[in-house]
């Protein structure tokens, strides 16, 4: 099972999740998208691979729908040594230092639990990319290819 965890305010990150879903299905995965994720969604059943699609709000803050997940990760500290994941962060470089702050925070939390990020984090800048999908789709195609994520 490939699980996509979404953090969004206005739906852009959810749209990315929905657009990339078929690419993973073509690669042989059963895919679930979690719009209001809990930690249990990650740890309670088998997760072959996870993808986080996360925008930033406030000043580098995690969107409200993903806060319970992030807090539980921090407070319960479940340890995730077998988790492999990718991360797509949506942000806007006009916010300066807090650019993609939520994606970076989440990445650090996951790393702190021993999870292994496959490849680099994708950071999509709304100043440069009007439709986040335009950046996310080719990135996911390449991610699947270079990380050899296709399953038979
Ligand atoms: C009130 C507000 C605060 C924001 N703060 C940040 C920020 O601190 N850093 C950043 O990179 N982007 C920030 N953004 C930009 C959003 O992350 C960006 O537009 C993103 O594409 C929104 O995705 P969504 O539709 O999934 O919510 C902010 C946007 C708004 C409206």
Automatic annotation (TrEMBL):
Q: Which cofactor does it need?
A: FMN
Protein keywords = Electron transport, Flavoprotein, FMN, Transport
State the coiled-coil residue ranges.
none
InterPro entries this protein is in? Flavdoxin-like, Flavodoxin/NO_synth, Flavoprotein-like_sf
> Pfam families per the record?
Flavodoxin_1
Q: Give residue ranges for domain Flavodoxin-like.
A: 2-144
- Can you supply one Gene Ontology CC term for this chain's record? cytosol
* GO function term, MF aspect, one: oxidoreductase activity
- Known Gene3D superfamilies for this protein? 3.40.50.360
Q: Where are the transmembrane segments?
A: none
Put simply, this protein is called Flavodoxin
Species of origin: Halomonas campaniensis
Q: Provide the organism lineage as a comma list.
A: Bacteria, Pseudomonadati, Pseudomonadota, Gammaproteobacteria, Oceanospirillales
């Amino acid at each position: 099972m490939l699980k996509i965890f979404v953090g969004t305010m206005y739906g852009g990150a959810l749209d990315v999740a929905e657009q990339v879903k078929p690419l993973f299905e073509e690669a042989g995965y059963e895919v679930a998208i979690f719009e209001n994720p809990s930690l249990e969604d990650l740890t309670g059943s088998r997760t072959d691979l996870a993808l986080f699609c996360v925008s930033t709000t406030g000043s580098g803050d995690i969107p409200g729908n993903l806060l319970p997940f992030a807090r539980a990760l921090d407070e319960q500290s479940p340890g995730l040594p077998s988790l492999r994941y990718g991360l797509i962060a949506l942000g806007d470089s006009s916010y300066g230092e807090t650019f993609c702050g939520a994606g970076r925070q989440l990445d650090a939390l996951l790393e702190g639990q021993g999870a292994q990020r496959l490849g680099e984090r994708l950071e999509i800048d709304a100043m440069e990319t009007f439709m986040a999908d335009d950046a996310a789709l080719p990135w996911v195609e390449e991610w699947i290819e270079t990380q050899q994520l296709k399953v038979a």
